[in-house]
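Practice set, problem 2.
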Amino acid sequence: MALTGRLGLLALLAAPVPLLAPSWWALLAVWGALLLGVAADLALAGNVRGLRFHRSGATSVRLGETARVTLVVENLGRRRLKARLRDVWPPSAGATPRTVKVDVPAGERRRVEMALTPTRRGDRRAVTVVVRSVGPLGLAARQLSRPAPWTVRALPAFPSRRHLPAKLARLRELTGAHVALIRGQGTEFDSLREYVDGDDVRSIDWRATARRGDVVVRTWRPERDRRIYLVLDTGRTSAGRVGDIPRLDCSMDAALLLGALASRAGDRVDLLAYDRRVRTRVEGASRTDLLPAMVHAMAPLEPELLECDAAGMVSTLMARVRQRCLVVLLTELNAAAIEEGLLPLLPQLTARHLVMIAAVSDPRITEMAAGRGDLAAVYDASAAERARADRRRLTAELRAHGVEVVDAPPKEIAPALADAYLALKAAGRL
């Protein structure tokens, strides 16, 4: 019946005026009937003002994964409500489905499940809930927009966690918890045992040898309870994209892998994000709380389109870290930024701390350097070689100041930084 009435009204509106009636009274009657139909349709549409919304579900999700958020629609009115509902989120929240049909009897509730797959880090907040109840003739509708607050935090993806088991196995070898104990390495005394072929003669304990009447050597293990201070540069250079990934996200991934590894090694790990001021920091977190604290602190960080204040960063570090530690600066090997900002300040930093710089290189530069197809490719190759030469020169200059440098592509920067940390442990430099 609703479809028949709707078609009849549309036919009346579409017909030429002379065919409707010979007088203006007939035309007015048609328009009056149409208005009455709209009013009746509006009256028969469900009352949306009696709705109440409640939320529950996930409050955080790792980037690339899916979270579930439940919206409960409660009908406090006296009539059944049939409507279409849209739960509005920012596009980067990746909310689905876009719209759903709801049928809520008076005094009852219905649940609407939303799936969120964020495409960017940070807090994703629900904007509003829009409900539209259309009358049986389809001529009029009641619509309500009402906020239903909820926030889902998109955490860093941490794709390098797949490397953690291999790095932990290497760590167990260094600390002697594995059968393949590496003899003579480390700086903290572990135990005595009999000499075997291949042992370093410098590790022989002559007093114990004299007491036992047999050659005895000392075994060592890397020191524990060292301090690692991770510094994220959130200045303009971190905004650059390497492939499809911002440099800042690559640095976060490397920091998470190193933090997980160092905390398992018994070292204390702190985090600082800095450009012109402190953006976030994590200090004093326990081994079990470190990774959750780091990912939640990193999640809302966005690069600032301004030059990092190297002097402010160094003074902040010197003020907060009194004892010797490993300072890992995750930044870009930008010659202008480092030579004018960080390089003059390195002597006072390296005098107190062991400094390591980790930078993400662009594999596209390597591809361009190999191009020889045409004249444009040759020019690109020349520019790429110039960039690589500048990077090698800057790396050599940093190492001359006693700074360890890790320079690797996005997929390799996290394991390369972890390997550099383990090498320092094995050499007893940490």
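Problem 2, part (b): a different protein.
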Amino acid sequence: MTSLARRGVLKCLPVAAGAVMTGVAGSPRAVARQEGDPSFPQPEIRSSAPRTGRLETRLTVGFTEQVIPGVGTVTTRTYEGVIPGPTLRVRPGDSLEIEHINALPPNDGAAHHDMNVPHHFNTFNLHTHGMHVDPTGEADNIYRTFEPSDTPGDTTTHRSRVEVPADHPAGTFWYHPHHHGSTATQLLGGMGGALVVEGDVDEVPEIAAAKDVVVFISELKLSGGRVPDLTSHGTYEGLDSTFLVNGAKNPVLTIAPGEVQRWRVVNAGAVTAHFLSLRGHEMHQIACDGITFMEPVATSGLTLPMGGRVDVLIRGGEPGTYKLTGGGPSQTLLTLVVTGEPRSMPLPTSLPGRSTSLPEPTRTRHLIFRSDENVFSGAFPNAYRILGDGETPPADPLAGRSDLAWGRLAADFVNQRVRLGEVEEWTVVNDSHAHSHHPFHLHTNHFLLTAVDNRRLAAPVWHDTVSVPPNGSITFRLRAEDFTGRSMLHCHQLQHGDEGMMQIVDYVR
């Protein structure tokens, strides 16, 4: 993120088994807005029932074998037997009730002594990424563990209940597993799905008229048709990434000249950011990380860190074939074909966005993301640390900062206590010289990005995930609201997170 102009600031970017129980498999309104291009895959939609305000559904996690054209036969852990999982659609005030079935085999019996060494690859839980919901109990509680059965072939059942606040912002979010030690492996196998909160922005006439398209980008690390478990630091370093959009390699999407479509783009990868560019077209960004802007912003390209989302409006240009690229100019994510009878669809001029004004802070914090190479013996030699205010103390208090465990996640140590309602200013510095791609992600609350590399942005932007530039910094303001309890911040390069680049945040009154 280098430009300070607003166009440069916006760099945030077969139907499964396991049926819906009391929800509906796509409300008529949601389904209608996604119809129109049967050749472009869309994840199955599961929506809350309009009369009850409940989405009660089941998600089964197991090893599945799929044949993906252009990739081959792939065996990996999935939700509901497909990549990605179903799209869950709710509205403010609804409840999301999920029965999780763990159909994975037992974890191996290897002794586990260091929580910051990847482990228990068949254990998972639920994170509703970007949602402003309760981080405790059976809601967005990433400290829970959904263990597999100890008996091969058996399953276990676990339940989540997430109450969506009545004033929750409408936007694009997503769900994925977040068990510390197994997250990177499971995300690189394709476990994840879109989570859409419907609301005010969807009623803007120009947006209501546009086709609603989920563009869910998965990143797989395949070796011999399988995603290997992260059993050593270099497990994934020699493997090229395979990028899928809605489970397909380079799918084809059609649009008419002058037609406007709304794309909900999710970077569900664990290790790669995407610079999104669509040749011959401007992208009119209307939201970042689920928070709507006050007006659309035209841009020719934007960077989407791992875990980040953008909502963009695309208006079909001249007839022809165009590539949406990301992860590098030669990496095609999807192909857009402009064809058919011209249409004349306008773009909105104003949006029901969130104000980007916060009071002056009454507290400051300073964090340092640092990776140190070859400091441990064994399969995971690197130390991924978060230092600065609230840093984790060394395992041996007498060892001082020479202790190699210093700055890595500790199970019961609260690193940051944040008071609800108090405005804080945080500066996060990237002090890594190698393995330096560190997207900062905060659970439960969005934050307002105000500066990059100590240079103020022309217009602040709400985020829940943002890349910290190598040898640089980000500055943001935070006002935590509504929910108390233990939550988390971490690096969303998820191998770094699994190896300790993570802190416990306790929201208090």
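Answer key, part (b): The radius of gyration is 22 Å. The mean pLDDT is 92.
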